[in-house]
């Protein structure tokens, strides 16, 4: 038996008859207007589905959007009563005229699914809806990282046709477009704030004018991950550096403690260096924050080394200059509590000095009492007197060294307290400034 012929198979197919009717004599390469003076108005709409990637180094934004455009095709019109009340039909995109509207910021072809059909209503309204993976160039400002807000533009315009041929308008009102987050996947690193729209007519040579619709996609980074993994460890290390000032300056533990903190912070910076965004035109403020924290740790270590050098006891240590005594011990605005701490640490040295002074006085009196006339002094007594005099001179010299060491220890304690206050004020002022900036950026 022979297979039935094609006309027989589609004899009662309304959609086939409608497709044949619409395709009869249709020219998809010609703009679908009966009067060539009529401009084809293309209504477009944009909904952001996901933020796939923000490449700060290459200044590229990758998004997945739902793009919709519609226009009136005056040659795709029919009477529904003639086609079993069919009011809309899907047709292959390749068989109808499609406006050449592109995104100016495109830098790469994304992996977008191919939607081969468009919807056409009986009034000639063509609806072309499709998802697009958009890879666009965007000027990314990372100075406020990780509290940064980025604003990237997607500019839609006809690449060839002037505004006399193709004009662009919004499918929805700007207010509805701005606050629409119905399809956005809100689980990633970036949060969609809003989508702004701006219509503009421009000319390249002041002769032909073109229409463009620019969408500003405003996104904000969620800073919790970076706050926990970058800021808090740095803050903890700086707090430990401040706590290290409460160690006695005349002990060697403070220097080793500060060096350990400095090495730990260096390792921390090496670990987080890959997390910070990098561009050729700027550095984020958090990078400057890390460098300043490292500099503060170095300053703290330098201060500790200087204080330890001052309070270190040496036999040939020179006396404290008078101007140092005046500026540090007399004029320095130090609290009585700090004086007490310094005096308590020097209590043992003071007792030694008192005992030495007592011995020196006794030795001096003994020397004076045992100093008879040279004429009647036996050789044995003369040797004894010389030995006693030598002992007295030795004790006096040791007492002077102890007094000098005591004065340097007092100077070291007072300077340590003063430098600690200056360091603490600098750290607090720096922290408040950065915290205020980041809080303002987060709220804004």
From TrEMBL:
<dbReference type="InterPro" id="IPR006202">
    <property type="entry name" value="Neur_chan_lig-bd"/>
</dbReference>
<keyword id="KW-0812">Transmembrane</keyword>
<comment type="subunit">
    <text>Forms homopentameric as well as heteropentameric serotonin-activated cation-selective channel complexes with HTR3B or HTR3C or HTR3D or HTR3E. The homomeric complex is functional but exhibits low conductance with modified voltage dependence, and decreased agonist and antagonist affinity. Heteropentameric complexes display properties which resemble that of neuronal serotonin-activated channels in vivo. Interacts with RIC3.</text>
</comment>
<dbReference type="InterPro" id="IPR006201">
    <property type="entry name" value="Neur_channel"/>
</dbReference>
<comment type="similarity">
    <text>Belongs to the ligand-gated ion channel (TC 1.A.9) family. 5-hydroxytryptamine receptor (TC 1.A.9.2) subfamily. HTR3A sub-subfamily.</text>
</comment>
<keyword id="KW-0406">Ion transport</keyword>
<comment type="function">
    <text>Forms serotonin (5-hydroxytryptamine/5-HT3)-activated cation-selective channel complexes, which when activated cause fast, depolarizing responses in neurons.</text>
</comment>
<keyword id="KW-0732">Signal</keyword>
<dbReference type="InterPro" id="IPR018000">
    <property type="entry name" value="Neurotransmitter_ion_chnl_CS"/>
</dbReference>
<keyword id="KW-0770">Synapse</keyword>
<keyword id="KW-0813">Transport</keyword>
<keyword id="KW-1015">Disulfide bond</keyword>
<feature type="transmembrane region" description="Helical">
    <location>
        <begin position="224"/>
        <end position="247"/>
    </location>
</feature>
<keyword id="KW-1133">Transmembrane helix</keyword>
<keyword id="KW-1003">Cell membrane</keyword>
<feature type="transmembrane region" description="Helical">
    <location>
        <begin position="286"/>
        <end position="308"/>
    </location>
</feature>
<dbReference type="InterPro" id="IPR006029">
    <property type="entry name" value="Neurotrans-gated_channel_TM"/>
</dbReference>
<keyword id="KW-0325">Glycoprotein</keyword>
<dbReference type="InterPro" id="IPR008133">
    <property type="entry name" value="5HT3_rcpt_A"/>
</dbReference>
<dbReference type="InterPro" id="IPR049944">
    <property type="entry name" value="LGIC_TM_5-HT3"/>
</dbReference>
<dbReference type="InterPro" id="IPR008132">
    <property type="entry name" value="5HT3_rcpt"/>
</dbReference>
<dbReference type="InterPro" id="IPR036719">
    <property type="entry name" value="Neuro-gated_channel_TM_sf"/>
</dbReference>
<dbReference type="GO" id="GO:0045211">
    <property type="term" value="C:postsynaptic membrane"/>
</dbReference>
<feature type="transmembrane region" description="Helical">
    <location>
        <begin position="418"/>
        <end position="441"/>
    </location>
</feature>
<dbReference type="InterPro" id="IPR038050">
    <property type="entry name" value="Neuro_actylchol_rec"/>
</dbReference>
<feature type="domain" description="Neurotransmitter-gated ion-channel transmembrane">
    <location>
        <begin position="230"/>
        <end position="433"/>
    </location>
</feature>
<dbReference type="InterPro" id="IPR036734">
    <property type="entry name" value="Neur_chan_lig-bd_sf"/>
</dbReference>
<keyword id="KW-0472">Membrane</keyword>
<dbReference type="GO" id="GO:0004888">
    <property type="term" value="F:transmembrane signaling receptor activity"/>
</dbReference>
<keyword id="KW-0675">Receptor</keyword>
<keyword id="KW-0628">Postsynaptic cell membrane</keyword>
<dbReference type="GO" id="GO:0005230">
    <property type="term" value="F:extracellular ligand-gated monoatomic ion channel activity"/>
</dbReference>
<keyword id="KW-1071">Ligand-gated ion channel</keyword>
<feature type="transmembrane region" description="Helical">
    <location>
        <begin position="259"/>
        <end position="280"/>
    </location>
</feature>
<keyword id="KW-0407">Ion channel</keyword>
<dbReference type="Pfam" id="PF02931">
    <property type="entry name" value="Neur_chan_LBD"/>
</dbReference>
<feature type="domain" description="Neurotransmitter-gated ion-channel ligand-binding">
    <location>
        <begin position="17"/>
        <end position="223"/>
    </location>
</feature>
<protein>
    <recommendedName>
        <fullName>5-hydroxytryptamine receptor 3A</fullName>
    </recommendedName>
</protein>
<dbReference type="Pfam" id="PF02932">
    <property type="entry name" value="Neur_chan_memb"/>
</dbReference>
